[in-house]
């Protein structure tokens, strides 16, 4: 069991003579399944999260095809892929496919396995969507004659649901209150408190994704004069898919940045091109926090705020449960929702968050169900 980086397939399983190979002109330099997969994955090399997800699904399918079916990927049929989808729900034998105890091991570790346990229904569907993208590209590249997944029943497209993973203003206040009450007795506690406050400021006021916090630096803050000659600060964010956007660095944000930098022993304002990460480890290190570390910090805050809510009585249990589900991305959703509630022009919200279109931004036009019910009851009447 090896990752595709270190995989070496025998001639009868490398796809060179697969039954679904195309006879036309190849558009990529790929003689084998491994060559073809690597050519496909190379297209996503600049976007780490996408690359990792796509490699994971392609790798799982190739290993299953070779080890479980004993046939190359280039010979898989529609029926094979139906079997594979059932396999995803419970990869067996577990000793072969699933990491012991569900632990993640490095890819070079002999204990590495392609699965950490059974996949949920949503994860199964996501896997098949990615594989459909793979097969469609292999056909387009002239490597395969047909896409075995194109025969799957296509469900009618449904309107995308409104975003519901967000914090109401009342619940957001609970989170801020908990952060303000974090302990600050020791130097380490004070530094951690300053980091948490800055991180939540950045995620909420800037609407940044957690990966953007980990990959951008303080040197991307800059100021320029507007048409009235007033200097305004901006944050030039390198975002999803390598797209750049300018996020307004409000007076609040710059105040919080200065407070955080001073807590880290840095000047209040960053210098142009400064490579200090947006989020720093505790201590003297200037290495950027990993996505996992940033995620853990945010989850710990939500968990602490939820426990504080729950301690106030059973009446708060439902709201505490909701907080415990929250993640960093909820802050981005909350920022968009709260801006929309405050009547900020949707075009401005779109540009602040880096959405491709207003269609995406309009998902945030919603209010709490309780408020919707109350206002409908009060304001929408027939008055017989």
Alpha carbon gap, first and last residue: 73 Å
Number of helices: 15
Write out the CATH superfamily name of the largest domain: Intergrase catalytic core
Q: Order of strands side by side in the largest beta sheet?
A: 1-2-3
What Rg, in angstroms, do the CA atoms define?
25 Å
Number of strands: 3
CATH class group of the largest domain: Mainly Alpha
CATH fold type of the largest domain: hpI Integrase, Chain A
Mean pLDDT: 85
Q: How would you classify the helix and strand content by structural class? A: mainly alpha
How many individual domains?
A: 2
The largest β sheet comes out as: 3 strands, antiparallel
CATH architecture of the largest domain: Orthogonal Bundle
Subcellular location: Cytoplasm
GO molecular function, one term: DNA binding
Keywords: Cell cycle, Cell division, Chromosome partition, Cytoplasm, DNA integration, DNA recombination, DNA-binding
Biased composition (Low complexity): 1-12
